[in-house]
Design a protein that fits this description.
The structure is a homotrimer. Chain A is an alpha/beta fold. The first copy, chain A, has 15 helices and nine strands. In chain A, helix 8 links the parallel strand 6 and strand 7 (about 250-255). Chain A starts with a helix and ends in a 7-residue tail after the last helix. Chains A and B meet through strand 2, helix 4 and helix 15 of A and helix 3 and helix 13 of B.
Chain lengths: ~400, ~400, ~400
């Protein structure tokens, strides 16, 4: 029980909940809230590893809404709510009477009469996903305030157009585990979030935005690297810079992958579409202009192809600190010679890191469970202490 | 606990279960059975509002079969069975080996070996939905009687071509809450179920039929209003008239919305397709005659358009008793200027009633839970008394 | 409790688990493992019949992956995991980011961080289903061994291209119930697995293969009957012959349905596609050659039609021992005059056996539950004894 006790003691200082709000973007939350989330997630993961139950709810419903494909996050959410003792019901919009816009608030209430948590992925249209989630949360608040809902469900952002907090916080847990430290131990470490080549187009910006928006809070030297033109949402680049300065770290943008890898402790090479492409694409999708969409895709893929050298491989890794930087990816990666001809990462490089990327992913269910616990309870620390004290096995015999 | 105790005491007189049958149409049930359902639903809702658990089952499966789109009812069923302690499995017919007709009885048994409740929505084809549910229930009974099934699952009608009992009973709960009375307090009150204009076609008849088939039992003055030709199933209009007379109330059909609203305590303006259209549509769908279907839709929409003045708006509401009748809708409503150009209800009028229509909807999960409890237990009153006495919180800490 | 005690006592001799492996093919398992599975399944079924709970897990997730349509098996799996206390999450590959091939191992781990059991149906492509499941299981083992997964989920074969063990073991349970014996009582009984005519094409080989691969282990006289050319996978025909000889029974292949039925105690008439057709079909599907696929289907259906006399009817049944052989089918059957013009079985013959085929199917949830219990626990006998001793009702009041 050593590790568990250590995790439990880590809760004792400055542990705070979300006081009935939601974590839609990490940059809307306080340092204490984020660090509490990470500590709760690591505790719950250890609890599970020991074969113990994390049931906090005796009964209740969780709902997920996926407006885009998902495996990892879908099962992370299902796992998290199951661990907490909630049943899951998925809202399939094709089987529903749902229209966009005005009825968001109606839908939000209709699925929430007995619901404790709602996970939403909405990352396809730039400018929409976060807005949808915020509207959704407001509608729940209105119905709760009016007494229509006896409980206020927690909204969990399972990836928006702006942030992917369950991913970024899992990444943070993984980095802390890797360096065996808490967030104060990250000071001065070098992290590189780099664009990488992929033969696909239209990948969301939320992962790189989530990574720079979170890791710049801890006094790290964060480098964002991409070919000219592959910018993220400027506001998020700017707030990352601001956070870096505030926290005593640094933030820079470079346009050379090799330069960005030099001396890095952590590298995160991943493809995304330039912001202007996502904007144009959203516009064309709304207009239903299929031929313009095809043209956009073609020109985008062509432009991508001029950057096939942005591949994470052994030569690139050799540039990192002692040649042994931690390789990170949210998965699935586009692996050269495996899932595509030329991709984000060389097969040899990925294979070395493969099980480690699975470990990175393994935090997500516990991050989600922690987010729900911190949002739904006034005194989450007491709840976590009691579940640990209970030491209830996951099997009944 | 005051309100809860009051609800509990309300059970004491004339409380009866369904004795192992199903509630497929309210008019097949006794007054005591319906009033017991309503009282159990209100009790369960209060239980939930107090943060208490309604788990009656320790384990077991519930199955839902949706042969039409659904949000509200889908989540109401999921919420209800979760509250009772059952796991939900949805039967998606596209992913199954199901054919129509002869194999209904086989399917019914195959999904029921460990199943406690089955919710079915089948409302598209006039003449089919209710028949399907009845066949389904008969097959379950046959397998139970033969010892193939060790328990006889309850069939819950989640909307058929004839009745929509979970909606009508939720509506009843809402009306009782609104007037703060039990069913005896409805005597003499005026309720108007009115057709309203919508730019869509083919809406089922089950909501208006369910409303007149239920509310005419309580000595109310019920008015059914529609443009000439928009009749419901004549048999159900007739039984409503008969019930009204029996219960000391009245039932009339008028063809003028304004006249129907005059002096009403409750108005329920909602679109539906004329019965003959639903019959014709069923016939053409069976024949796969797409061009005739398009023609039918066109002529139907044109006919509808001659009745755009059947809109519930401030001027119409002013006709009701003190201008303050309770506005009801099963949702989603077609709202003028919001979800369509011209619809069932003016935006201003709907907005005033909006949160109240959410309250109306909020009863459905508890009505479904009550129906299952009353159908599956020999002595449901004892069960409800014990769950209340237990006062088990919904969270474990 | 008489029957339950009898089932409990049956566990006492030679009861063994799977020691953390999976039951993908019955012929990979020992006699003791199979017989333990059957005894556990019969015990769990009796437990359920008595209204008692089979909850072994307090919390946990089960996942199902259906790469082909399914009703019976889908609900059997849902029922089984619910009985054991697990929540179910279905992996819908169309809603996922899953590609074939190299990423099987990634997917396997990504859905398993808190998962106890994974059911897979993959029966369409000859040469693929079993391979996929084996790769999946290997990937889970790798991640478990590396500490990425804190528990090693059990893989349940819900039908592959080679075996359908949950079906074959349910069939075995049913036969044992029918003759009221244990497997030693099967010695010398005659079982006929026969091809039967169906107006469809491309039915998998896994049911007949599963039946001959299992029943030849018990000293029975097993006859496999099919028209010339409708062979199963030769390796499985051969291992069946070998097992029959080893167990003191016999195995023969005949090409005449009537001859095969003569003197049989059990008949299992069912359609399947010849192996060479399944091979050709797999090849054409991979090549995306639609016109060749249509041609193959046509020629196959034509060939089938020359065997319409392979129908199980009263005249055929009269050939069996005392004319009263047990008729078996995995369902749904193609019934002459009911689900098709000419099919596998005459309406009169099927109707006599109908409820009995439902009984045959009723074992499947309990076989699956038994498989998970035997794979996931070191001492499954103790677990089963304790769940029986607990006598916990399925309802809480």
């Amino acid at each position: 029980m050593d590790v568990l006790t250590r995790h439990l003691e880590a809760l004792s200082s400055d542990f705070v909940g979300y006081t009935n709000s939601d974590l839609l973007q990490t940059w809307d939350m306080s340092d204490a809230q984020l660090s509490s989330t990470v500590r709760a997630a690591r505790l719950l993961k250890e609890l599970h590893r020991l074969g113990l139950s994390g049931k906090i709810f005796d009964t209740g419903l969780a709902v997920s809404i996926f407006r885009d494909h998902s495996t990892r996050t879908r099962f992370s959410f299902a796992s998290a709510v199951t661990m907490l003792g909630l049943a899951l019901s998925e809202l399939d919009e094709e089987k529903s009477q749902i229209a966009h816009g005005e009825t968001v608030r109606e839908t939000a209430t209709m699925i929430s009469f007995l619901t404790e948590a709602i996970g939403i992925r909405d990352d396809i249209f730039l400018g929409e996903g976060h807005t949808y989630m915020a509207e959704f949360a407001d509608a729940l608040q209105e119905s709760f305030d009016a007494g229509v809902l006896p409980q206020r469900p927690t909204v969990v952002n399972l990836q928006s157009d702006r942030d992917h907090p369950t991913q970024a916080l899992s990444d943070l847990c993984h980095v802390l585990d890797h360096f065996d430290c808490d967030v104060s131990g990250l000071r001065g470490k070098k992290l590189t979030m780099s664009w990488a080549y992929s033969p696909s187009y239209g990948k969301p910006l939320s992962v790189p935005q989530g990574v720079i928006g979170l890791f710049t809070r801890y006094g790290m030297d964060v480098t964002l690297a991409y070919p000219e033109g592959y910018t993220l949402i400027p506001e998020i680049e700017k707030l990352s810079e601001h956070q870096a300065v505030q926290s005593g770290g640094s933030f820079r943008i470079v346009h050379d992958m090799r330069e960005a890898f030099r001396g890095a402790d952590v590298v995160y090479p991943k493809s995304w579409a330039p912001m202007w492409v996502m904007e144009k694409r959203t516009e064309l999708l709304r207009a239903g202009d299929k031929s313009a969409l095809r043209e956009l895709e073609q020109s985008c893929l062509e432009e991508n192809r001029t950057h096939v050298d942005w591949e994470c491989n052994e030569s690139m890794m050799a540039e990192t600190r002692d040649g042994t930087a931690l390789y990170m990816h949210c998965l699935p990666a586009d692996i050269t010679g495996v899932s595509c001809q030329r991709g984000e990462v060389a097969a040899e490089t990925f294979e070395k890191a493969r099980l480690d990327t699975y470990r990175e992913a393994s935090f997500k269910p516990f991050v989600i469970a922690a987010m729900i616990a911190l949002a739904r309870f006034d005194d989450p620390q007491r709840i976590l202490e009691r579940i640990v004290a209970e030491k209830r096995p996951r099997t009944r015999f």
